[in-house]
Specification:
Helices cover about 70% and strands about 0% of the residues. It has a domain of about 55 residues. The protein is mostly helical and about 80 residues long. It is built from one helix and no strands.
Length: about 80
């Protein structure tokens, strides 16, 4: 962007180009961070889904074991 005015120099006016340049610079930084967060969020999301499936399976097996009927067949 522009340099700071030297002592005694009048301040330079901010133009539309200066604002657009700064916004592009900021957007570039934000886009890089968003890409990094997307990858992390995807990994966490997959881990949560896998964890939920494992817990549901485990609780289902446990419940089935408790409610299982024992049937004895004897030959006479």
């Amino acid at each position: 962007m522009s340099r700071k005015p030297a002592v005694g120099e009048p301040p330079r006016r901010v133009t539309r180009d200066d604002i657009e340049e700064k916004l592009r610079e900021l957007r570039g930084e934000v886009d890089q961070r968003v890409e990094g967060v997307k990858v992390s969020a995807a990994v966490v999301g997959v881990a949560v889904v896998v964890g939920a499936v494992v817990v549901a399976y485990w609780l289902g097996r446990r419940r089935t074991r408790r409610q299982r009927t024992v049937l004895e067949i004897r030959r006479i």
